[in-house]
Amino acid sequence: MRAFRVEDLPIESKMLTKALDEAQRKVENYFFDIRKQLFEYDEVLNSQRDRVYTERRRALESDNLQSLIIEYAELTMDDILEANIGPDAPRENWDLEKLIAKLQQYCYLLSDLTPDLLRSKSSSYEELQDDLRLRGHDAYLQKREIVENQAPGLMKEAERFLILSNIDRLWKEHLQALKFVQQAVGLRGYAQRDPLIEYKLEGYNLFLNMMAQIRRNVIYSIYQFQPVLVKNDPEETKNEKIAKIVTNGRGGNKKNPNKSPDPVGASESSSSSAMGPQASA
To answer: How far apart are CA 221 and CA 256, in angstroms?
Structure first.
C-alpha cells in the first residue's frame, strides 16, 4: 500500500457515489418536508394572529368604540337565539321562556321581555332575530347613557379595557390550546387522516369559539356594569382604577366575574350578582 501510495488516492466508484448522493438527497428531502410542515402549521396560526391583532388595534386606535360594541351586542343576541331556539324550529315550538331567561341573564335591562310581547312582534325567526338585535342595541345605548350620567368618560375607558383584557387573556389560552391540538393531531395519521387538515379544522373551530367568547364576555360585562362613585386614591394608577371598576361589576362567575354565561347553559339567579363597579369621583 505504501509502495503504491494507495492511501493518497481518492476512492472512486460510481456505485458508492450514487449511494452517497441518494442518501444525501433523502436527508435533505426529509428536513425540507419538516420545514414545510412547520411553515404550513405556522400559516394557520399567522392568519388567526392577523385577525386578532386587527381587532386589538381597532380597540386601541379607535376614539369611539360604539360601533364595535353594538356589533358585539347584535352577534351575541344571534348566538343566544340560535342556541335556545334555532332557525329550523317551527314557531309553535319556540321556547320563549327559556330564551327570555337567558337574555335577562345577560342583560338585566331586558326585564320587560315577555313571551307574548315577542310573539306579537315576530311571526318568523328572521323577525325575532331583528327584534332581539334592536333590543340588544338599545340596551347598550341605555347602559351607556346611565354610566355617562354618573361618570362622564368612564364608559369609553371601560369598553377599551374590557376588549383589550379579554383579547389578551383568551388569545393566550387559545395559543396554549393550539399546542395541544398540534400534538394530538399527529396520532390521527394512524387513522389515515391528514394531520395538517385535522389541525386546520380543529384550529378554526377553536378560533371561532375564542372570538365568540371575547364578544360575549365584553358585552356581558358592559350590560352588567354598575359604577359606584368612590374617592380617588393618589397612589392608584389609571389602569388599576379601570381594572377595579370593571372587575367589581355584576356577574355570576366568582372566579372570573367578567366571563359571560354559556348561551345554552341554565340561567342563573340574578341574586348572585356582586357589588357594582367603582368609578373614581
So the answer is: 11
Domain harbouring 228, CATH code: 1.10.3060.10
- Residue 227 belongs to domain spanning: 42-51+64-261+272-280
Domain assignment present for 135: yes
- Give the pTM: 0.71
List the chain pLDDT tens, one digit each, 281 residues: 455 555 665 666 777 777 777 777 777 766 656 666 666 777 888 889 999 999 999 899 888 899 999 999 999 999 999 988 888 888 888 888 999 999 988 888 888 888 888 888 888 889 999 999 999 999 999 999 998 888 888 888 999 999 999 999 999 999 999 888 888 887 777 777 788 888 888 889 999 999 999 999 999 999 988 877 666 665 556 556 555 555 444 444 545 555 666 665 544 433 333 333 333 33
Question: Can you tell me the distance from the alpha carbon of 204 to that of 34, in angstroms, rounded to the nearest whole number?
Answer: 22
Question: For residue 129, what is the enclosing H or E element?
Answer: helix 125-150
The residue with cell 393566550 is 172
What are the cell numbers at 234? 393618589
CA 87 from chain center: how many Å?
23
Q: Does residue 137 fall inside a structural domain?
A: yes
Cell for 67? 360601533
Give residues with Cβ within 8 angstroms of 112, minimum separation 6.
none
The 3-state DSSP class for residue 156 equals helix
What one-character DSSP code corresponds to residue 108?
A: G
Q: Residues 6 or more apart from 90 whose CB is under 8 A from it?
A: none
